[in-house]
Specification:
The protein is an alpha+beta fold. The chain has helices at 2-18, 36-45, 72-82; strands spanning 26-32, 49-53, 61-67, 88-90. The model has no long low-confidence stretch (mean pLDDT 75).
Length: 91
């Protein structure tokens, strides 16, 4: 009886290790701006997140992640209002 419980427990552990969970899909944008605090505030209000700087120490090119449930076109329009002639690229 103890051996059966041990085998069943081991089988459950092995199955749980191989179980692939659902990954949360996210959209990504590359945003060029000279005003990082404004970009962070815009993302805070719109459920996106400034993930990292892409241009090293220059600090003008950023990767922004957007949850998949949020319409990316709406966020692009909002960010275009803050861009002041800068670029926005959707990945």
């Amino acid at each position: 009886m103890k051996r059966r419980i041990w085998i069943l427990t081991a089988a459950l552990i092995v199955l749980s290790l191989f179980h692939a969970g659902t990954a949360s899909a996210q959209n990504r944008l590359i945003v060029r701006t000279t005003n990082l605090p404004l970009l962070k505030n815009a993302c805070l209000l719109n459920l996106c997140q400034v993930t990292r700087a892409l241009d090293g120490t220059i600090g003008q090119l950023f990767l922004v992640t957007v949850p998949s449930f949020l319409p990316i076109q709406t966020l692009e329009n909002i960010l275009f209002g803050f861009r002041n002639g800068r670029e926005l690229v959707a990945l």
